[in-house]
């Protein structure tokens, strides 16, 4: 195709028979910025709509999310039995029943131990705070300063009490809601184990055919990431509970089992969970065995957490699950704002799976298109190299 003698010919080819006033008034930088801006706003609006739907239908979406987490934990066991020769129609119910019994049994035992010692635990932690207050007073801090700080903390808790508890109350307003959510989770889990691949293939069928292989690869990557996250989180929580439990047992702190149970439960809250349980263990040690024992417990908690952060999590979760701490904090905050405590717990695995899927899709789409496309800054538009009439420059969209 012959090159136009003047730029206006290109203008007419792109914009029609009339000259483009926009190209004379708006700079190329502004046009490129506007193109990025409206696309970004569309993505944000889509995410807000999805978040609103999830929050509105939380009594359904939360059980489904829990079922997905359990399916990611149990599905490898089912696949192992199938590889060993057991038929899938028998392996799925067997793994479902066995897994539910084990999970509920472990959770019941842990919660029971924690509840049994919760009263004594709270009293000893309160005593630890009193000792800290006496020590601070002994170094010259006045009662007014201490009372002012304590009062500020109490006021903050009172002011934010409804926000802190709204998520828990909204998802557990009655025993009926809890039982309904549990029934949905168990029902969904069974079919995820039995027909997970068929369900995924049906969802893939809703997408355009050229995009299905890429979406399938992204889904596999996200599923592997979710499974790795769940298994690693359970194992890390167990190691934290055992490690800190051994430390407080050696020091001679009472309530070893309730404290270890608290560590196990709070370890499922990323970043802040282990810190909370470590503070409680240190306060109990301060009351029970004195400041030296409390320092030893605190040192043990720090060592266990450092081993977890620098050895266990990188080793168990791998690169696919690793996320920047800022992304984790923002995910937890967003999940807490949308669905409360449950949202904060589910935010990180959801963000990790989305991150893995986006990375997979980015590798399939961005690189080929970016290699074959160029931005014509003079015209202020995206222009695929080659003549569109002869099919050149369409990149990977035709593959």
From TrEMBL:
Question: Where is the protein found, in the record's own terms?
Answer: Cell membrane
Q: What is its main location?
A: membrane
Output the superkingdom of the source species.
Answer: Bacteria
Per the record, membrane topology reads: Multi-pass membrane protein
The residue ranges crossing the membrane are: 40-73, 94-115, 175-193, 229-250, 256-276, 283-307, 327-354
Keywords associated with the record: Cell membrane, Membrane, Transmembrane, Transmembrane helix, Transport
Listed GO cellular component terms? plasma membrane
Disordered: where is this region?
A: 376-399
> Which biological process terms from the Gene Ontology are attached to this UniProt entry?
transmembrane transport
The family this protein is said to belong to: Belongs to the autoinducer-2 exporter (AI-2E) (TC 2.A.86) family.
What is the protein name stated in its UniProt record? Answer: Putative PurR-regulated permease PerM
């Amino acid at each position: 195709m012959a090159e136009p003698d003047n730029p206006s010919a290109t203008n007419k080819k792109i914009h029609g028979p009339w000259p483009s006033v926009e190209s004379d008034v708006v700079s190329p930088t502004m046009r490129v910025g506007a193109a990025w801006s409206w696309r970004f706003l569309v993505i944000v609006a889509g995410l807000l709509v999805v978040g609103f739907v999830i929050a509105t239908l939380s009594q359904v979406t939360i059980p489904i999310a829990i079922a997905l987490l359990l399916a990611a934990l149990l599905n490898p066991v089912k696949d192992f039995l199938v590889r060993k020769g057991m038929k899938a129609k028998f392996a799925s119910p067997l793994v479902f029943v066995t897994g539910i019994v084990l999970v509920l049994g472990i959770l019941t035992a842990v919660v029971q131990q924690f509840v049994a010692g919760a009263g004594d635990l709270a009293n000893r932690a309160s005593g630890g705070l009193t000792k800290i207050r006496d020590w601070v007073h002994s170094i010259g801090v006045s009662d007014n300063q201490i009372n002012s700080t304590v009062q500020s903390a109490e006021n903050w808790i009172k002011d934010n009490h409804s926000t802190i508890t709204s998520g828990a109350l909204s998802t557990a307003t009655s025993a009926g809601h809890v039982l309904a959510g549990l029934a949905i989770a168990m029902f969904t889990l069974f079919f995820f184990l039995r027909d997970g691949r068929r369900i995924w293939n049906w969802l893939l069928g809703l997408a355009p055919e050229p995009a299905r292989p890429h979406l399938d690869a992204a889904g596999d990557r996200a599923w592997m990431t979710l499974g790795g996250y769940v298994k690693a989180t359970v194992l890390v929580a167990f190691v934290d509970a055992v490690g800190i439990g051994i430390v407080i047992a050696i020091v001679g702190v009472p309530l070893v089992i309730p404290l270890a149970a608290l560590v196990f439960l709070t370890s499922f809250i990323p970043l802040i969970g282990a810190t909370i349980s470590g503070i409680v263990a240190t306060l109990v040690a301060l009351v029970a065995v004195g400041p030296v024992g409390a320092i030893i417990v605190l040192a043990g908690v720090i060592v266990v957490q450092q081993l977890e952060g620098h050895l266990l999590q990188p080793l168990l979760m791998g690169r696919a699950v690793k996320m920047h701490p800022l992304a984790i904090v923002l995910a937890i905050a967003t999940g807490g704002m949308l669905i409360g405590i449950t949202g904060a717990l589910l935010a990180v695995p959801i963000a990790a799976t989305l991150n893995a899927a986006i990375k997979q899709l980015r590798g399939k789409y961005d690189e080929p298109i970016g290699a074959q496309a160029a931005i014509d800054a003079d015209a202020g538009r995206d222009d695929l190299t080659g003549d569109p009439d002869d099919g050149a420059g369409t990149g990977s969209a035709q593959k």
